[in-house]
Amino acid sequence: VLEALANGKPCVVSEFVADAFGSELQADLHYLVAPDAEAFAHQTLQMLGDDVGKLTKLSGAARARVKEHF
After folding, report:
1. Which of the residues 28, 39, 43, 44 has the least number of beta carbons within 10 Å of its own beta carbon?
2. Do residues 14 and 34 make contact, with C-beta atoms less than 8 angstroms apart?
3. Mean pLDDT estimate for the chain
4. What is the pTM of this model?
């Protein structure tokens, strides 16, 4: 996931992965989080349907943060 974020790819992750990030990365700022399969599918479809500006902001913030801290 860190490699994807470092390459500017927006990600949807499980709560387990989100917890592993600790305070270094934040949900809805650097990635999207889903607690179960249904929410994962919903977040993925929402991300695919969102405008490019929102995804660019999400992936840009994540890329910068990963490169800075990892």
Report:
1. 28
2. yes
3. 93
4. 0.87
